[in-house]
Amino acid sequence: MNKQKFALQTALVALAVAGVSVPATADAPGAGGTQALGPETGEQVYRQICQACHMADGKGASGAGTFPALAENPRLASPVYPIIVVTRGKGGMPWFSNALSPAKVAAVITYVRTHFGNHFTTPVTEADVKKFGSPAPVIDH
Questions:
Q1: How many structural domains comprise the chain?
Q2: For all residues of the chain together, what is the average pLDDT?
């Protein structure tokens, strides 16, 4: 039963995120949109994807679930921890390795590490994400 509850929670979060992170298309000459609109900067990624759970101030939330605070979070001192969490998921948080490019993962982690009372100024790079991140895990049915 615990596995089923976890799988359901993960699926619901993934569906919610998918609805937020699916890029819209912009009009370009010709029929239909051809250019994806989506978050480009770390701040935009945070506001469009992460903020829904971790809140605008990064302080997290409790209610139907518990979403940890990113504000003043000492676990962000090393970029490896947030890279692994963002790309592989943890607990009820889904992985984003299939939804965000390594460059966007790096940008949002750098943004979070330098905002919300965090003062970890070394930027996270796309190479860091490629080194420590991994493809999304396969769910065994």
A1: 1
A2: 80
